[in-house]
């Protein structure tokens, strides 16, 4: 399995014009009012100097400039049906993004930059029709894509079940070392499921860096949470 590395470096840098605040301006926003603004509505100088906030499309999904944990920020999906910790060095490919109401969402996230020894591609697809009875079908899809039989670890959390397994691609001398996680997250409260593939691309010193990198990937996947239906509710 190979992914297009070009997705990892898609970033549109948009400079937002911000108005200078002044105590003499009766319409100036207070500090509390500024903190309530979503990142998409904030002035450039008030945003963290990381890739996720520099990319205009990605910025539209981020809910705050406050970190959920070091290096990660709160993300809300376009369906408004799931959240996750979003990496500060990540950017969502606008060209690869797809949304159909609250029925389907597909996104591709590139993490890292041209100076990174390890870059990553995170591919997430949400389908509203998936149920607990869909898991065997999803496992078959994933194993067909990977080309081998996989053993999934089952993790229950917040009325959802995560099925996850590590994998590593075969590679020749001089090629990028590729590895990561694949799996599925089922919403146990409502219908809806998420398929994901998290792939890391390592150039050198991979044996030294792989363990920590895999932990970061595992933690990111575990941060995905379904939330109540808030957009185009059924019925």
Give the helix/strand class.
alpha+beta
Main β-sheet, in a few words? 8 strands, antiparallel
Measured distance between first and last alpha carbons: 40 Å
Uncertain regions spanning at least 5 consecutive residues: 1-29
Global Rg:
19 Å
Instruction: Round the mean pLDDT to the nearest integer and report it.
Output: 84
Please trace the helix and strand order, writing H or E for each element.
HHHEEEEEEHEEEEHE
Number of strands: 11
Helix content: 10-25%
Counting DSSP H or I runs of 4 or more residues, the number of helices is 5
Task: Characterise this structure.
With 235 residues, the chain is α+β, with helices and mostly antiparallel strands. Helices cover 18% and strands 31% of the residues. The protein is built from 5 helices and 11 strands. The protein has helices at residues 31-36, 51-54, 56-59, 135-146, 206-222, and strands at 72-76, 82-87, 90-92, 98-100, 104-111, 118-127, 153-157, 160-168, 177-187, 193-202, 225-226. The strands form 2 sheets. Strands 3, 4, 5, 6, 7, 8, 9 and 10 form an 8-stranded antiparallel sheet that branches. The protein has a 3-stranded antiparallel sheet with strand order 1-2-11. A hairpin with a 2-residue loop joins strand 7 (153-157) and strand 8 (160-168).
């Amino acid at each position: 399995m190979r992914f297009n590395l070009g997705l990892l470096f898609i970033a549109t840098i948009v400079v937002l014009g911000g108005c200078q605040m002044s105590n003499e301006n009766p319409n100036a926003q207070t500090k509390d009012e500024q903190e309530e603004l979503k990142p998409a509505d904030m002035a450039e100088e008030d945003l963290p100097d990381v890739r996720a906030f520099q990319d205009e499309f990605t910025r539209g999904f981020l809910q705050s400039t406050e970190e959920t944990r070091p290096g990660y920020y709160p993300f809300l999906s376009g369906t408004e049906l799931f959240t996750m910790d979003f990496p500060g060095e990540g950017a969502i490919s606008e060209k690869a993004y797809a949304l159909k109401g609250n029925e389907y969402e597909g996104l591709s996230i590139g993490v890292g930059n041209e100076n990174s020894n390890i870059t990553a591609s995170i591919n997430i697809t949400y389908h509203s029709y998936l149920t607990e009875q869909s898991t065997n079908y999803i496992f078959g899809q994933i194993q067909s894509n990977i080309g081998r039989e996989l053993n999934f670890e089952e993790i229950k959390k917040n009325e959802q079940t995560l099925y996850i397994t590590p994998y590593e691609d075969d590679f020749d001398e001089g090629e990028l070392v590729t590895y990561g996680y694949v799996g599925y997250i089922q919403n146990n409260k409502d219908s809806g499921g998420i398929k994901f593939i998290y792939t890391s691309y390592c150039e050198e010193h991979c044996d030294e860096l792989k363990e920590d990198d895999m932990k970061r990937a595992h933690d990111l996947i575990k941060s995905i949470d379904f939330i109540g239906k808030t957009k185009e509710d059924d019925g």
